[in-house]
User: Which sequence fits this backbone?
């Protein structure tokens, strides 16, 4: 995979998120205040947090693109995982803030939202779902954990907007048919939004932390790579195979067994052939091959 192409595509996804979220946050914020809708204002805050998240993704992707150096011989790929954690923390804090604001509303006299709030929420749902699908597709295609996390940030906004839509609709209905308690459907929706946001932040943050702590691919994810190694002439057995995720790419450490009677030079050539074969995978950036003498029944053959 061409790193420059990957960087440009992921960067474009982040910029689309930044611009789209700024427009939605401003639109929902203004209409939220004009229409007296706490649910819509909470949704606007959620969109504003998405702006910060997309900026963090942009910074993380830029850092991950930096080539290996003396202090970081394996590259800077984990910058994206760290960025994903930052986005998850921001999402969590936003969820808590929305919950606090919604709870306060139950102890205050609130006004019935205006109908314009409904139109703003529907527009937000459509735009956010398009942004989610676009960024999720890019994140999967270019193995960008940060972009995938940010995409789910957009999907959480879709859920929150749906909750806001129900809350605003219920509140307007309560005002229309003169059912006072139904007016509080608006802050109830805001509280429900906060629960969704916090839950998603926890899930995304946990996954990102797991990947940052030198997570290795599971056996079922490395079957094809192991078969590729075993197919190299001179490889008698794959003794150990560890593929570590390092952001959007993988670094592999493996031990292979070869005929103990061959020369060191021949064993080295087999190791180089194994490395070349694994590097054919677009997302494999480095391979360390250790050569073992092949043993049979506990003895060197």
Assistant:
């Amino acid at each position: 995979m061409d790193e420059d192409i990957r960087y440009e595509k992921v960067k474009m996804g982040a910029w689309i998120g930044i611009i789209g979220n700024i427009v939605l946050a401003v639109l929902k914020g203004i209409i939220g205040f004009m229409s007296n809708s706490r649910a819509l204002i909470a949704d606007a805050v959620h969109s504003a947090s998405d702006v910060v998240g997309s900026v963090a993704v942009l910074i993380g992707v830029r850092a991950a693109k930096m080539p290996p150096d003396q202090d970081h011989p394996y590259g800077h790929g984990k910058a994206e995982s760290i960025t994903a954690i930052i986005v998850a923390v921001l999402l969590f804090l936003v969820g808590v803030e929305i919950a606090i604001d919604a709870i306060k509303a139950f102890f205050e006299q609130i006004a019935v939202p205006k109908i314009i709030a409904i139109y703003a929420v529907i527009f937000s749902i459509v735009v956010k779902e398009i942004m989610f699908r676009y960024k999720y597709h890019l994140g999967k295609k270019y193995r960008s954990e940060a972009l995938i996390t940010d995409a789910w940030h957009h999907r959480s906004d879709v859920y929150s907007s749906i909750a806001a839509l129900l809350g605003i609709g219920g509140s307007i209905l309560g005002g229309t048919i003169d059912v006072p308690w139904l007016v509080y459907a608006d802050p109830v929706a805001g509280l429900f939004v906060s629960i969704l946001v916090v839950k998603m932040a926890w899930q995304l943050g946990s996954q990102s932390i797991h990947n940052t702590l030198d997570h290795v691919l599971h056996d079922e994810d490395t079957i094809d790579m192991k078969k590729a190694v075993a197919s190299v002439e001179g490889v008698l057995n794959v003794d150990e195979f560890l593929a570590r995720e390092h952001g959007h790419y993988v670094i592999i450490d493996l031990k292979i067994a070869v005929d103990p009677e061959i020369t060191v030079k021949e064993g080295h050539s087999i190791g180089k052939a194994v490395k070349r074969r694994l590097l054919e995978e677009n997302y494999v950036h480095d391979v360390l091959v250790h050569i073992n003498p092949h043993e049979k029944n506990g003895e060197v053959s």
Q: What stands out?
A: Helices lie at 3-35, 38-64, 78-105, 116-141, 145-176, 185-212, 223-230, 264-278.
